[in-house]
Amino acid sequence: MADARVWDLLERHLGRAADLRQLLHSEPDLSGDESMTRDRVLQALPGDQTPTKVAETGAVLRLGGPGPCIGLRGEMDALPVTERTGAPWSSRHDGTMHACGHDLHLAALVAVAWAVHEARTETPLLVVLQPREETYPSGAKDIAEHGILRAEECATMIGAHIQPSLPAGVVACVPGGVNASSDEFEIRVHGSSGHAAYPHLSCDPLLALSEIVVALQSVVSRSVDPMSAAVVGVGSFSSGKAANVIPGLARATGTIRALAPETRALLRNRIVTIAQHVAQAHGCTAEVTITDGEPVLENDPDLVHAISAHLTAQGMGLSTTLRSLGADDFSFFSERMPSAMMFVGSETDEPLHSPSFLPTDVDLRLTARAMLAGYLGAADMLLGAPH
Predict the structure, then answer these.
(1) DSSP string for 361-382
(2) Rounded CA gap, 384 and 387, in Å?
(3) Are 228 and 263 in contact (CB under 8 A)?
(4) DSSP secondary-structure letter at 81?
(5) Strand pairing partners for 289?
(6) Nearest to 79 by CA among 354, 380, 289
(7) Would you say 345 and 168 are in contact if contact means Cβ atoms under 8 Å apart?
């Protein structure tokens, strides 16, 4: 019966959440500058506890009594995108837009927080307002390393993200790796420059790097188990300025994506080996710099099972196959505690990060319901309830 009451309370707070969503959408903040968004959300939350500021512009707020609690993450940052939705509550900040649904996630979180607060549920809720999801340095990483989650006895973390590739009413709640690790690499090949008319008097780093880029295309197909998803992609290539000069340096950058930690390590090693040996074959040298990004986002299987029971009970469809080589820094939570990230189907056909992306109030309701199912499933786990 307690479950039924909290679902009823959620419905009562969706109108307030829709108003908040429109306010947040019209006044977006870029990564690292989310203080105003944070303060607006904190003002909209229930309870009389004092929030703890973390990660510069982030905050956590506990609702409920002492003991192990459930974290619910809401990202706060917008994107450097010029909005083209035509909505009456479009962004008032030129070149800044909530084009990834973070405004909707925050509003849904507030509705869930009110429902949980008023239902006086047994398990405390920890509202986690996270900055810098879209950029480095990661806001989730900063919060995870701060110590506040341990101090608050945060036992599990729940997240939900709107996903227009799924139909409305369907939620992907999948065990195991659902988002990839994401690292970046830079390859700098050093040769000896010279005149293009006398190539035998130089060591051409541009040619060496070209062959390195081609060789990298076989890393996934020939080094990774075909049943494991991975990507090695080169995104930039630069060298030289003059048509008749062999340059002394060539540079390329790219991304490494993997759905398993062991695949991630393998790819990083193979890139270094290939770059150095191909460069050496051309009389050049290669230096490879790999910048750590997000780890693999792993959903806890038991938590997924518990959440799925609540989603199904509320008549929501389940997708059991959606995984992506996109990345989300929610993974810094999932590598430290049992966690679950859900992807919520949307009424809109516009892709994430599009200047026309504008989820509806129906999407807000569905996201809030997914978040509440996540909270209730996590509570079942903490309390040892059958599911």
Answers:
(1) HHHHHHHHHHHHHHHHHHHHHH
(2) 9
(3) yes
(4) -
(5) 186
(6) 354
(7) yes
Query: Where exactly are the structural domains of the chain?
Result: 2-178+296-383, 181-294
Asked if residue 286 lies in contact with residue 213, where contact means CB atoms within 8 angstroms, the answer is no
How far apart CA 300 and CA 335 sit, in angstroms, is 10
Is the distance from CB of 364 to CB of 21 less than 8 angstroms? Answer: yes
Could you count the other beta carbons within 10 Å of the beta carbon of residue 146?
15
| Cβ pair 151, 67 in contact under 8 A | no
Q: At what angle do helices 261-281 and 205-216 cross, to 10 degrees?
A: 150
Helices 2-12/361-383 angle, 10° precision = 150
Pairwise CA distance, residues 230 & 236, whole Å: 19
Residue ranges of the chain with per-residue pLDDT less than 70: 1-2, 386-387
**Closest C-alpha among 365, 373, 377, 354 to residue 107:** 365
The reported pLDDT for the residue numbered 330 is 98
Percent helix, strand and coil across the chain, each rounded to 5?
35, 30, 35
Neighbours of 142 (CB within 10 A): 18
Side-chain half-sphere exposure of 387, counting CA atoms within 13 A: 25
Question: What pLDDT does 1 receive?
Answer: 40
Given strand 317-319, what is the order of strands in its sheet? 52-54, 58-63, 125-130, 69-75, 154-167, 339-346, 170-172, 317-319
Q: Which fold has domain 181-294?
A: Alpha-Beta Plaits (3.30.70)
Q: What is the DSSP letter of 79?
A: B
CATH of the structural domain 2-178+296-383, one choice from 3.40.630.10, 3.30.390.10, 3.30.9.10, 2.60.120.260: 3.40.630.10
Partnered with residue 318 across adjacent β-strands are 171
| CA terminus-to-terminus distance, the chain | 15
State the Cα torsion 287-290-291-292 to the nearest 10°.
-160
Number of residues written out for the chain: 387
**Please, where are the H alpha helices in 300-339?**
301-313, 331-334
pLDDT of residue 48: 83
At 386 the pLDDT is: 63
How many other C-beta atoms lie within 10 A of the C-beta of residue 201? 11
Q: Identify the DSSP state of 294.
A: E
pTM: 0.93
Alpha-carbon span 151 to 138, nearest angstrom: 21
Per the omega criterion (within 30 degrees of 0), is the bond before 137 cis? yes
